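Q: what sequence does this backbone want?
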């Protein structure tokens, strides 16, 4: 079966010289079984005609919101919702910037803003424009955005006669990226994973609790990445103030305390293929919760006796079957590698993700994280600081490799 059988791909073309290569890309996509709908910016017609594009794609090409002659309306919403993937190639500096900031002054940009589908962005421009901090900043904004892949421009001769980075990858390379994208997307079909996220709260009295600063961002990003690859996900989340994921294959279980988190994990663990423990779990809880609000009057100090909470990751480590994979996190400040390795062993994890509070931009609350993955053979893989969504991709890639 062709590798893109039945996939609906929107190809968006903006006005750069590399647009002349897009008919080849369309041919390749169709040869792989894809159904291609082309949208081009008005300016791109200077580089490639709608007639050429409609001939190769075997469909009308859209460029305006409505047909001047007939008044026919091209619903950007209809186009946006009826595709499995949008590929914008070439993406000029101008279109890149408008995508980054949400402008919609042509049909292609309106469809981009309206599509729930993943987007592959293929920047192509002259070397100085590509290297300009504004363009690089826009590339970063789009790379960090959920469900976006930005392909790196290639080095070589440019239309201006200059040599440098800015060339659009060849259609064959873009095709390979698209095929890879769909392979990845389905790589966890039929699998079920549990993800713990956020903090656990341990009640002191009806209005106070022991908690921590976990925002849930890391755990949610992992749940979303697993779901994107086709897995069913049980996301067991403590109290957070970020939006819950909306993918239909993510079931959100909202809990408050460690024991409540353990109960949900225990219930779903036996039928799961594994669990990723990204939550910042309270290690201790008050021995008893006071029934009414503690008053400050007549008290010089207050002592609260704490007892140890169960260790969810370690509990699952004891009962896990050979095929189940468990992944832990270690949030450390000192002797990071050693402490993380100890947790890997004591919790019987397949690998552990170390994040250190010493690294700027890593750990609690931030949009970014910097991790080192340590496996059972003590192999360490260090990753650079990146958006938690991209960190989640790295972690899930590691997991998928283990499942092979
Ligand atoms: O939520 P964010 O703001 O995005 O922040 C993300 C994060 C910093 C919380 C996350 O990246 C992280 O490091 N989570 C684990 C934090 C932690 O509690 O680490 P730990 O070293 O105390 O625990 C080790 C592992 O055992 C963790 O996988 C933890 O979930 C698990 N654990 C710990 C204690 C316990 N009682 N039960 C557990 O399951």
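A:
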């Amino acid at each position: 079966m062709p590798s893109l059988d039945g996939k609906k791909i929107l190809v968006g073309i903006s006005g750069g010289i590399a647009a002349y290569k897009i008919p080849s890309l369309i041919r390749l996509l169709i040869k792989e079984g894809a159904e291609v709908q082309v949208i081009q910016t008005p300016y791109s017609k200077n580089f490639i005609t709608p007639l050429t594009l409609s001939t190769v794609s075997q469909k009308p090409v859209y460029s305006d919101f409505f047909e001047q002659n007939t008044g026919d309306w091209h619903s950007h919403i209809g186009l946006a919702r009826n595709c499995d993937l949008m590929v914008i190639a070439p993406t000029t500096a101008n279109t890149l910037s408008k995508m980054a900031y949400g402008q919609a002054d042509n049909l292609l940009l309106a469809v981009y803003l309206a599509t729930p589908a993943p987007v592959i962005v293929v920047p192509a421009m002259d070397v100085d424009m590509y290297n300009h901090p504004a363009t690089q900043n826009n590339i970063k904004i789009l790379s960090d955005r959920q469900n976006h892949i930005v392909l790196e421009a290639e080095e070589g001769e440019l239309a201006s006669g200059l040599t440098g980075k800015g060339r659009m990858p060849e259609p064959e390379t873009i095709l390979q990226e698209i095929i890879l994208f769909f392979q990845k997307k389905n790589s966890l079909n039929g699998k079920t994973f549990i993800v713990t996220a956020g903090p656990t709260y341990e009640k002191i009295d009806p209005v106070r609790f022991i908690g921590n600063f976990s925002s849930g961002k890391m755990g949610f990003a992992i749940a979303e990445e697993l779901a994107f690859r086709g897995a069913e996900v049980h996301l067991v989340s403590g109290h957070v103030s970020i939006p819950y994921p909306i993918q239909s294959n993510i079931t959100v279980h909202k809990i408050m305390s460690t024991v409540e988190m353990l109960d949900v994990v225990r219930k779903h663990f036996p039928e799961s293929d594994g669990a990723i423990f990204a939550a910042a779990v309270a290690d201790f809880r008050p021995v008893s919760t006071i029934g009414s609000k503690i008053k400050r009057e007549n008290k010089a100090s207050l002592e609260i006796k704490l007892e140890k909470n169960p260790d969810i990751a370690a509990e699952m480590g004891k009962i896990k079957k050979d095929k189940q994979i468990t992944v832990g996190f270690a949030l450390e400040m000192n002797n990071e590698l050693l402490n993380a390795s100890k947790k890997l062993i004591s919790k019987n994890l397949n690998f552990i993700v170390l994040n250190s509070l010493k690294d700027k931009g890593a750990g609690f609350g931030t949009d970014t994280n910097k991790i080192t993955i340590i496996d059972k053979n003590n192999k360490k893989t260090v990753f650079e600081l990146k958006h938690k969504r991209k960190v989640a991709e790295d972690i899930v890639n590691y997991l998928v490799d283990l499942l092979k």
